[in-house]
C-alpha cells in the first residue's frame, strides 16, 4: 500500500472504525485512542496490509486488542490498589494553587511557559533559552513581564481594600 493509498484508506475508514469501537467499548475517547494507535501501527506495516486483503479488519482487530490490553492494565492496577487499601487520598488543589493556575492562564503562552520553567522547574535563563529556542534576552523579558502580570493578578483584594480605605 503506497502512502497515498494508506492516507485514502485512513480517510475512508477511520470514522467508521471509531464508531464500531465506540459501540464495542462504550467509551468514545477510548475508541478514538485505540483506533488512532492501530492506524499508527498499521502505517509501519502498510505493505503487509495490502497483501492481507482486509486492512480494515486488521486495524479493527488491533484496536480491539489494544483496548483489551488497556483494560487488563487498569484491572491489575485496581486490584493492586485494592490489596493495599486503595489509592492514597488526594485532597486536591487548595485555593492558592487554583488562584495561581488561574492567573497563569491569563499570561500569553510563551510567558506562561517561561515562568513555569523558571519557577516550577528551577531552570536557569540559559537552560530555558536552550529548551525553548528563545534568546536569553527574550527569556528575561518574559520573566519580568510575567512576574509583573502575576503580581497584579494575584493581589489580595483585602490588601487593596486596606490601602484604599
Structural key phrases:
mainly alpha, Rna Polymerase Sigma Factor, Chain: A, extended, Arc Repressor Mutant, subunit A, 2 domains, RNA polymerase sigma factor, 81% helix, 165 residues, 9 helices
What does this entry look like structurally?
- One of its GO terms (molecular function) is sigma factor activity.
- Belongs to the sigma-70 factor family. ECF subfamily.
- This is RNA polymerase sigma factor.
- This protein is mainly α and 165 residues long.
- Helix content is 81%, strand content 0%.
Write the layout of secondary structure elements.
Blueprint (H helix, E strand, L loop, with lengths): L2 H23 L2 H17 L1 H7 L2 H29 L11 H12 L2 H11 L5 H8 L3 H18 L3 H8 L1
Helix pairs in contact: 1-2, 1-4, 2-4, 6-8, 7-8
> How many separate helices?
9
Give the percentage of residues in beta strands.
Answer: under 5%
In the CATH hierarchy, the third-tier topology of the largest domain is known as Rna Polymerase Sigma Factor, Chain: A
Helices and strands, in order, run as: HHHHHHHHH
Please describe the biggest sheet, giving its number of strands, its sense, and whether it closes into a barrel: none
How far is it from the N-terminal to the C-terminal residue, by CA? 75 Å
Per CATH, the architecture of the largest domain is: Orthogonal Bundle
Average of per-residue pLDDT values: 82
How would the global form be characterised? extended
Helix percentage: over 70%
CATH class of the largest domain: Mainly Alpha
Specify the structural class: mainly alpha
Tally of strands: 0
